[in-house]
């Protein structure tokens, strides 16, 4: 970062960007989510869902706002983010949710992976009393 960035205060003295402390996040609403699931051995996409995280855990909602399923924090085992970028499309964040009963995979467009990971990490530390968030590293392979 140049001198101009330091003068304008774009970074704090400790090096973190303003707003990077997400420890006060208490709830999160994500819209236009697609659930990727498997039914009878076949992949199925269920679009236009919402995810809500708060003190009670995670809720999956229909586009009209009605709840489909509620998973309490005590049942969540892992939250893992990764980024996918289909050819010719914008990046899509993938959120894998492992509960004590099932694995759920959601595709979330138009969200910053770092902010999502930070928000979910802060809430899992506060409500589940343990950090559940992981970031999956993706390796790039070149075909020769």
Indicate the low-confidence ranges by residue numbers. 1-15, 137-144
Radius of gyration: 17 Å
Portion in helices:
10-25%
CATH class annotation: Mainly Beta
What number of structural domains do the residues give? 1
The DSSP helix count reads: 2
Strand content: 35-45%
What is the gist of this entry?
This protein has helices at 3-8, 113-127, and strands spanning 28-39, 42-54, 57-61, 67-72, 76-84, 92-99, 103-109, 133-135.
Could you please describe the fold and organization of this structure?
The protein is built from 2 helices and 8 strands, in the order αβββββββαβ. The chain has an 8-stranded mixed sheet, covered by helices on one side. It has one domain: PH-domain like. The chain is mainly beta and 144 residues long. Helix content is 15%, strand content 44%. The longest helix is centred in the C-terminal third of the chain and has 15 residues. The radius of gyration is 17 Å and the shape is globular.
Element layout with pairings:
Layout: H1 3-8, E1 28-39, E2 42-54, E3 57-61, E4 67-72, E5 76-84, E6 92-99, E7 103-109, H2 113-127, E8 133-135
Parallel strand pairs: 5-8
Antiparallel strand pairs: 1-2, 1-7, 2-3, 3-4, 5-6, 6-7
Spell out the key features of this protein.
144 residues, mainly beta, 2 helices, disordered N terminus, disordered C terminus
């Amino acid at each position: 970062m140049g001198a101009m960035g330091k003068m304008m205060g774009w970074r704090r003295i400790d090096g973190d960007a303003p707003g990077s402390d997400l420890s006060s996040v208490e709830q999160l609403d994500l819209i236009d989510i697609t659930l990727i699931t498997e039914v009878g051995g076949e992949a199925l996409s269920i679009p236009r869902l919402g995810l809500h995280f708060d003190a009670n855990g995670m809720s999956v909602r229909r586009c009209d706002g009605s709840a489909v399923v509620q998973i309490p924090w005590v049942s969540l085992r892992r939250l893992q983010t990764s980024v996918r970028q289909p050819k010719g499309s914008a990046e899509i964040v993938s959120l894998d949710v492992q509960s004590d009963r099932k694995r759920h995979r959601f595709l979330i467009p138009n969200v910053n992976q770092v902010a999502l990971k930070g928000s979910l990490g802060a809430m899992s530390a506060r409500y589940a009393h343990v950090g559940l968030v992981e970031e999956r590293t993706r390796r790039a392979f070149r075909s020769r």
